[in-house]
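REQUEST FORM: STRUCTURE PREDICTION
Request ID: SP-0412
Submitted by: Lab K.M.
Chain count: 1
Length (residues): 287
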Amino acid sequence: MRIFDCHSHWSTRRGYLFRTEEELASQERIWHTKATIETEQEMTDNFRRNNVRVILDLAITMWMERDEIRDVHDYAYDVQKKNRDVIFGHWITLDPRVGKFALDEFERGRAAHAGFIGFGIVGQQNPGFPPSDPIWDPFYKHSIDIGAPVLIHTGLTGIGQGFPGGKGIVLEHAHPRHIDIVAARFPELRILAARPAFPWQDDMLAILLHKANVSYEVHGWSPKYLSSALKKEIGRRLQDRVMFGCDYPVLKYEKMAEHWRALGYSESVLAKVLHENAERYFGATAP
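STATUS: Completed
RESULT:
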């Protein structure tokens, strides 16, 4: 079965999310996988081998200067154009304090014709403004104007996990209540909540049931660790609203697909979660 991955990361040296030896060691400690740097060809061949189309998160740009941000984006767009069959597009993740530069850079990405471009909102690290903070409003309004969804992270993050003070990250900034507030304030905005919302999963379920403009992708966790309530709703009321996210290269496609199958969902529900819901959501023509 094919896979549409709503959220993963680059595995190349230029794009790898974890940049320091300390951060690379945390990957093994938290996710129990070793960091393996791949070439661009190895990465895209991995996607093809697993029958994957993916939207990659360029979260490394959150901490970069403007010239470096442009360079990373140009690099990503160039690789995407050579591999359109597997890289569907990118989430642009920037510090909201850069203001108009973020909107200009977003439009520069769209003008590059390098696949899908959407804003990724990471209130915990980017740089501590929860998604409901008005500083993000220009990102939301721009997304409404062009009809693009936004990705808003929720729940526990592995970034800073196990470090003193969690590297300054405030977990509450990813509470689902912030998604609820944004969804209510901007009913025309299409919101894709990102990550299982541990430890507030029931809150996230309530928001999904209440707010029709919110959908859900569950990257970063093996599905066997999802809450019982979420597993139940995936097979019932939310079977058309939940989408696959892997968090490659931290997690691997082979294992994630195996774990989804082990949950015992029908083939029709699995098809919805693994590719059909996302293909419809992003207007992606089935290959």
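NOTES: The radius of gyration is 17 Å.
Reviewed by: T.R.
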